[in-house]
């Protein structure tokens, strides 16, 4: 456990807390891409299947459960709470079919192609979740470009997510220096791509 990992997890958790605060206080989903939230939920569902049997540490298990639960809450609220449904950006958000064809299916194919064990559904989905997380912010970026602006409250949430990814790059670099057998090219590649996609958010912020 490195200081970068702890800082990254803290930024990640704070991002979800800020998002829930935005939705609860403003009762508006304006400026927020529901497609991005659905993709993040799919990422966690694919990656955290091992919640039922993998108890590496209490911290690790609770963190996984918290991210998955928070994502379920946000997506459910955007779909079910009338005030949030009315303020969703239907015209500027990516369509479900476009999201499936352009982001989800390529992630599944890349995950299968680079999986450590192609006979294991868990390994295939775990690898796919890395690539899907890398592009999950694309619908949010598209929404900002189409609308020509970013809601300030949503920008804080996006900034914290970008910060989380930046801290994880530091975590990987530190682990690579300290651990002789640490080798995760899939995570490094997808993380680098995700960080590059967040650069426009940093500029806007």
Automatic annotation (TrEMBL):
Subcellular location: Endoplasmic reticulum membrane
A Pfam family recorded for this sequence: ER_lumen_recept
InterPro entries recorded: ER_ret_rcpt
GO cellular component, as recorded: endoplasmic reticulum membrane
Keywords of the record: Endoplasmic reticulum, ER-Golgi transport, Membrane, Protein transport, Receptor, Signal, Transmembrane, Transmembrane helix, Transport
Subcellular location, principal: endoplasmic reticulum
Ranges annotated as spanning the membrane: 65-84, 96-113, 157-174
Signal peptide positions on this chain: 1-31
GO biological process: protein retention in ER lumen; protein transport; vesicle-mediated transport
Membrane topology classification: Multi-pass membrane protein
GO function terms (MF aspect): ER retention sequence binding
PANTHER family linked: ER LUMEN PROTEIN RETAINING RECEPTOR
Family per record: Belongs to the ERD2 family.
Protein name: ER lumen protein-retaining receptor
Species per Swiss-Prot/TrEMBL record: Emiliania huxleyi
